[in-house]
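Thread: quick sanity check before group meeting

JM: Hey all, I'm pulling together slides for Thursday and realized we never actually wrote out the predicted structure for the chain we discussed last week. Dropping the sequence here so it's in one place. If anyone has concerns about the input, flag it before I start.
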Amino acid sequence: MATIYDVAALAKVSAKTVSRVLNGDAPVSRETREAIEAAIAELGFVPSNAARMMRSQKSGLVGLITGAISLSSEPSQPQGLPELFIVQGIQRALSATSMTVMIADTGGRLDRVPDLIQTFLRHRVEGLIYVAEFHQRVELPRVPLTTPFVLANCFDNHGTPSVLPDDRRGQRDLVERLIASGHRRIAYLTLPPHMVATSLRTEGYHDALAGAGIVADPALVQCADYDGHDDETQILWDTIDRLLKLVDPPTVLCCGNDKMAMRVYGILRSRGVKVPDEMSVAGYDNYRVIAETLYPPLTTVDLSYTAIGVRAAQQMMAMISNPDAVQGLRDQGPTLVSGPVYWRGSVTERRADTVSKLRIVRED
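JM (edit): ok, ran it. Output follows.
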């Protein structure tokens, strides 16, 4: 492998002059520069970044920890896609900078995160970003205050700068749009109760009802998804069955995510209930592979994962360029990212005097 001394010998200059050309820190004549550049090209010389790092205390590296790579082997499936979209947003924001992103995948093992953080710190990264697969609270090792650290799609109890989806606003915006379309009996089929998104979206659901003067009916809010349960479809079927048998059944089913909405379509179809003529359905996430291929296409809320990644990268760059910004980001709390409601054919408009045509199919 060629060295700086080989370049100097071929160009017939000193190693110090070669260094000046490489670093651009001192004037060199045009003839000398051309001779050195020709020698570099002929020898295939690649400058070492180590010495430059030691002088400048800057590596130009950003460490990114995620599980996106190991969880997204099937691009057509929603699992793993949130992290992947966040990573893409981070890369998009940093592509316009001089930073190089180093990605480490957890392989689905959170116990690897502390070692990955230490590995990045040993490589003297200028900043760290940790990406979670869903909105959650995390417990990670403390990172030195001299290294900017941003959490994406998660938060901790230490006030680490974080970027989160605005789940409360997203559900509120969706329910407000449903109410504006004439729906008053709006059911909400939630994700597991322990999830942060569930509590926030439930608050948003109640915000919208209260804003319209609609008294919330507890019977219309049902958990229809339990982590690790082998009988997800049976639980969802039973939940829908109980809702349809209410004296005053809902006119629309809001689902915790688009994957649940896809199963709801199948259950309603098996019961002879037409979407949206007899029951409207709405989702959450705007997984286009689901929302745009269902028939009718699914009304849903966009969970802007790419924007979360962009905002996380912007926050980290702000802290790198201005260390004094760290405390300000801590004081302001999490940055919330919202997305629009995508109104599609799965929800029908209802007039106030419309009588529901819902046919309740009861099992013998």
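AS: nice. The longest strand covers residues 127-137. The chain has a mean pLDDT of 86.
JM: adding both to the slides.
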